[in-house]
Amino acid sequence: MTETAAPDYRAMWTELGLDLPNHDRLLEAVGQLYGDTYLTQVNRPEGMGYLDFVMSEVHGLRIKELHDFRASGGKVVGTYCLYVPEEIIRAAGAWGVGLCAGAEWAYDKVEQVLPRNSCALIKSMMGFKLGSVCPYLEEADLLIGETTCDGKKKAYEIMGQMQPMHVMELPQMKREKDRELWRSEIVDLIGVMERLTGNTVDAESLKAAIVEVNDKRRALQRIAAARAADPSPISGKDALLATQVAFYDDVPRFTQMMNTLADELEERVASGTGAAAKGAKRVVITGTPMALPNWKLHDIVERAGGVVVGEEMCTGSRYYDTLVSEDGATLDEMIDALAEKYLDINCACFTPNAGRIDDVLRMAQDLDADGVIDYSLNFCTTYQTEAHAVDQAVRDTKLPVLRIETDYSAEDVAQLSTRVEAFLEML
Amino acid sequence: MTETAAPDYRAMWTELGLDLPNHDRLLEAVGQLYGDTYLTQVNRPEGMGYLDFVMSEVHGLRIKELHDFRASGGKVVGTYCLYVPEEIIRAAGAWGVGLCAGAEWAYDKVEQVLPRNSCALIKSMMGFKLGSVCPYLEEADLLIGETTCDGKKKAYEIMGQMQPMHVMELPQMKREKDRELWRSEIVDLIGVMERLTGNTVDAESLKAAIVEVNDKRRALQRIAAARAADPSPISGKDALLATQVAFYDDVPRFTQMMNTLADELEERVASGTGAAAKGAKRVVITGTPMALPNWKLHDIVERAGGVVVGEEMCTGSRYYDTLVSEDGATLDEMIDALAEKYLDINCACFTPNAGRIDDVLRMAQDLDADGVIDYSLNFCTTYQTEAHAVDQAVRDTKLPVLRIETDYSAEDVAQLSTRVEAFLEML
Fold first, then answer.
1. With an 8 Å Cβ cutoff, is B173 touching chain A?
2. Which of A201, A228, B81, B283 is deepest in the core (most CB within 10 A)?
3. Which residues share a beta bridge with A375?
4. pLDDT tens, position by position, B50-108
5. How far apart are CA A412 and CA A424, in angstroms?
6. Which of A47, A54, A44 is nearest to A263 (CA)?
7. Does any CB of chain B come closer than 8 Å to the CB of residue A158?
8. Which residue in A265, A300, A301 sits closest to A284, CA to CA?
9. Contact at 8 Å (CB) between B118 and B151?
10. Which residues of chain A neighbour B120 with C-beta distances below 8 Å?
């Protein structure tokens, strides 16, 4: 991670208004965590070298790219949730970056504006702002929120006092009238993006963006499919990292590099080369998203000798499992396709949300899982409440379930490790 | 409360499937609490005798009325939130009863299905079901939920496995398209109620219901207005009780009795007769609803010598402050009027929700408040997060604010009393 402290970046960070001493501390902590979690692994695919590089430049080169893009008149848009269609952002000629945060930061300041009992994801998102340590956030010309959960919905009101913010209303059901409301929100977003960029979103630019983002998802699907093999050709934490980076890296480059990684994984599957040992206990994790650099549970499972073979979460299958139809010829048809794809994501914010249970069961079967871990952040009401039905449905298929509720701190790692080890032994 | 244990009710409670020993314990506890909180007051309006009687028969006479109504073919509908238009229920010839619960009950069972960190209101609602102690719930032929907050939205999925449930989708914003969605939800509710009852909702029946419920709200408005006087002619806890009982009592009878109470309050204002001492510190409470029998904060404030003069909450001004327009001639026009009135309620589940701040400031001024208490239940994300903006706006008008976060337990009463006493002294 030493490159990130290069002097040329410091001028850029200063220009962005970052708190340099604290930002140094953050980068050092993330670098240390990355080294401990990732670089200690053996039998890694060579293709992970790209993600190692991306992480070593997480606040460096990528920020410089955004910075230069903006200097040349480009617009950067920050998002917090995969319901915000990145195709629209790209079709307007802007770049989107995911801003969900996975580390405890500046909670002392956060608790002055948010309830202490907010989930770690929301506290982290606010802490990165209040602590002035996130260059992605500071590069954003516009933030786009969404009404997925109470915590984020209300926190955006506070965030919106600090940076320009547009909030999309995600409906809470999936009936025809909800699809219409959601479609109109996408139409509104097109207007917002056109006003921000001065560009027009037309059938040509939207079609190109749809294909481009589908290509990214297709690359991630290839990686996900390779994990069905025993031994798995890639560790769960490496695969998780790929999805996390998908939210902020340059799209065509990322797609290319992930296809290269997928090529390698397919070769490894053919030759029986594993990142984990053959016969390692296979776990599917379902639940709340794991934002960068939240690798805690994957690390615990894999240090205990298990292997995570799938994530039914927003930083997982919910992001890449389905594509936007490329059959649309007109702008209207493409908007229909976007509305359909995005509303079909099965977040626990919907009621009912039976589709998620189907997804978990299907993944557990397709990936030959030995058990399921139902993961939620403390105070994540939607996933914590839905856990009751999800866990019951999984148990009904005779698969064991371990329920984990935690946050971003390292305080409970020893306790969680003990529980995970006992769970893996039982499988 | 001794009448509630009359033998004829026991047969009815058994028929409803109540857990009689536990139900006895609940009634005894509520009776004791009522005696301590209410019957120890001095200078009460005589009109409160009606509410004393209602409370003494809370699971007795009123349940018998519902029971007899159902025996004669009537339908009873349970609701948990004031966004569910009771006018529609009544226009279909059914009776609505509010089911929000304000006491800790069967939390051991609740925590097997809901996150321990759910708010007290939701845990109580589930505990009354799982503990089989709520005859209103068991008399309900249909429950109608709404998507106000994450906790209730997801808990309804579990409740819906135990009793027939229809959930209305409340939008999260208040734009024209949200009004259209909400209006369509009201239209859907009419269909649901027509199928349940076999009756048709027409312009005549809906008009009658609108006027009837408006009359109830007008009576409550008179009581609220009388509280602007110094001394206040009625204690805050007595006024709170009136709103709480408004959700389940017979509508025309309740309206009549509240108008009688209002007549008396207006006479007391004219003669300068107070329930509290003249010059007592006047407090407006804003925040999460206080479901029966949650009288905790009002009791603390008034035992400390203050007087609560208004509640900006669902068990308060949000319920009765605005009326449904009676100008509609057609069913469509009346549905428009209902959609408008209900969507104009300022719950913290909306984003943004600036109207609530206006309401709090206006009430504090109109009621000549010395201070505001911002009250929320622990884990009530929407109100706890909105508290940041509300409290700031109140302080900007130079009014002191005390923020209280609590639950239904009595454990923190001494601590809260100390804080409230210090706050009142400061005013």
1. yes
2. B283
3. A287, A404
4. 999 999 999 999 999 999 999 999 999 999 999 999 999 999 999 999 998 899 999 99
5. 18
6. A47
7. yes
8. A301
9. yes
10. none
pLDDT band, residue B1 (cuts 50/70/90): very low
Q: What is the DSSP letter of A38?
A: I
In A265-424, the DSSP E strands lie at: 282-287, 307-312, 371-377, 401-406
Q: Is B78 helix (H, G, I), strand (E, B) or coil?
A: strand
Indicate the SS3 state at residue B389.
Answer: helix
Report pTM. 0.96
Asked if omega into A21 is within 30° of 0 (cis), the reply is no
Amino acid found at B43: N
The rounded radius of gyration (Å) of the Cα atoms in chain B is: 20
Residue A382 sits at the chain B interface (C-beta within 8 Å): yes
Q: What's the pLDDT tens digit per position in A169-186?
A: 999 999 999 999 999 999
DSSP state of B317: H
Where does residue A368 rank: exposed (0-12), middle (13-18), buried (19+ CB within 10 A)? middle
Q: Would you call B20 an interface residue with chain A, using a CB distance cutoff of 8 Å?
A: no
Q: Residue B123: pLDDT above 90?
A: yes
Task: Find the helix or strand (DSSP H, E) in which B88 lies.
Answer: helix B86-91
The rounded distance, in Å, linking the Cα atoms of B371 and B174 is 30
Structure tokens at B40: 């120890």
User: DSSP labels for A334-356?
Assistant: HHHHHHHHHHTS--TTSSS-HHH
Sequence-distant (≥ 6) Cβ neighbours of residue A130 within 8 angstroms: A106, A109, A110, A113
Q: Residue B187 burial (CB < 10 Å; 0-12/13-18/19+)?
A: middle
Q: From chain A, pick out residues whose CB is under 8 angstroms from the CB of B389.
A: 157-158
Q: Report residue A183: phi and psi, to 5°.
A: -60, -40
pLDDT of residue B4: 47
Phi, psi of A38 (to 5 degrees): -100, -45
